[in-house]
Amino acid sequence: MTTGMGRLMPHKEDNIFAGSNVSRLALHAMSEIALAQKTLQTKTDSNNCLYEIISWACDSSQTIQPNEMRKILLKQLPADLIVDSLIPEAAYWLGNQWVKDEMHFVGVTKASAKLQQLVWAFTDHLDHRLLHTAPNICSVLVVVPQFCHHTLGSVVLHHQLTRDGVAAHLAMGLAPEELGQKVATYDFDGIFLSVSTREHLELTRKLLVFLKNIVASRTPIILGGRLARNMSQADDCGGADMVCDNYQEALNFVQRSRKPNRVWPERRA
Question: Within 10 A of 181 (CB to CB), how many other CB atoms are there?
Fold first, then answer.
């Protein structure tokens, strides 16, 4: 029956606390409580891991090697969460410390380099067998332009692509001529350009036009990184086929324009 307020009400003979209803309600409540506890525990573990990562990166006297640190962290959380979320969050924290003048540039640079080594430690332990057994596996070039000095994001992206079974190649700090020779020589399925700041927007435009003149329509170019995240609709990056800061969306875009006889691995949900 409905009340004058239009709310559906149970008939008085329908006792929601009777018989099997009680069991169902109890099971539902227990399930919700367990989920809440698990979420809270994951958050606590994440905060603990983040603190450990930052402390390890900032302590110049720390003797724990990146691979040892990887093992310590894996006892608490899965690798995907550590690489995709916690290490970038640690890098963001370092950047804020420098902006607030609470850490000097050298300290931030050294700590960031250690975070990058930690990502490489995780990448080294990925399963690379598919990349060596499938000669026509899809390949992507991740580019950090010569004018960019922030490289951690691209190393994380390289890890994510490799983890998804893509043959990811990393080109950091190459002069335009060297980069042009690389994209002209190898038949990549996509080029991911990672740029960290709007200060480099004009240089990025020029590089995009330069690369597009070489690859034409045979290879899509995706502009990503913090620049892509902070771009407005008024910004013109005509050389890019896509502007996106989500690697899975970018990879889907590349896959839709796949080349003949390419092997695309089944990616995880």
Answer: 13
Cα distances from 163 to residues 58, 119, 133, 203, in angstroms, run 27, 12, 16, 31
pLDDT digits (tens, 9 = 90+) for 95-113: 889 888 888 989 999 999 9
Instruction: Give the residue among 63, 58, 53 at the shortest CA–CA distance from 88.
Output: 53
CATH for 129-256 is 3.40.50.280
Q: Is the dihedral of CA 193, 196, 197, 200 positive or negative?
A: negative
Write the pLDDT tens digit of every residue in 141-163.
999 999 888 889 999 999 999 99
pLDDT tens, residue by residue, 243-262: 888 888 998 898 887 766 77
pTM: 0.77
Tokens representing 166?
Answer: 């893509």
- What are the residue ranges spanned by the domains of the chain? 42-123, 129-256
